[in-house]
Amino acid sequence: MRDMSVIIEGGQPQRGQGGGQGAPAVPLDAQAVRDAYRRWAGVYDTVFGFISAPGRMRAVAAINALPAERVLEVGVGTGLALPHYTPAKRVTGIDLSPEMLEVARRRAQDGMPATIEALLEMDAEAMTFPDASFDAAVAMFVASVVPNPRRMMAEMRRVVRPGGTIMLVNHFLAPKPGIRRGLERIVAPFSRALGWHPDFAMDTVLSPAQMAAATLQTCNPLGLFTLVTVPRDVV
Questions:
Q1: N or C: which end of the chain has fewer CB within 10 A?
Q2: Helix, strand, coil proportions of the chain in percent (round to 5)?
């Protein structure tokens, strides 16, 4: 395992979402995200680990099934996914929260099947990796947190090689009006304390072409989360 010392990278993200009909009315900014996860870092695994586990495990299983060797995990958080990558994977994780990364580093020090190449403090919208650095990239429960999801997606495309794969796991706004969508809208103002928005539509992060090419798999509990797989070469 290489040195896990923190590296601070990236510029300041702009406020606002990157398009789409379901963009939250009150966009998050980088400082709001840092503040939220500073509060939650110590208890995140206990409070959110269980509900997010099915989506996380489905995403890691999908990554493990790919021939991809070099994997980027965007928004690695406390590193809950790290123990589940196979030994063939070489994983780099990035996150905006130093507190969450500290938990991930402690987890990585306990030993992993995969090679954890680096855990870095970095802005998902302004990565400092060279083009085509990875075979695949995955963002779990991150798309609705970053200030500009389309910019994050563009950065993921840039750092993944041609022919590679991009995966997202997230909760997306219910596609049709109804009780679920109404509840999502009601709780949206309270979600800022958690650093995420439940009123987040898929077209906020994916272009029309990516929406058409995406493979979708619902994840438990109750189909609350969706695993989205997009070929890197679709713009």
A1: C
A2: 35, 20, 45
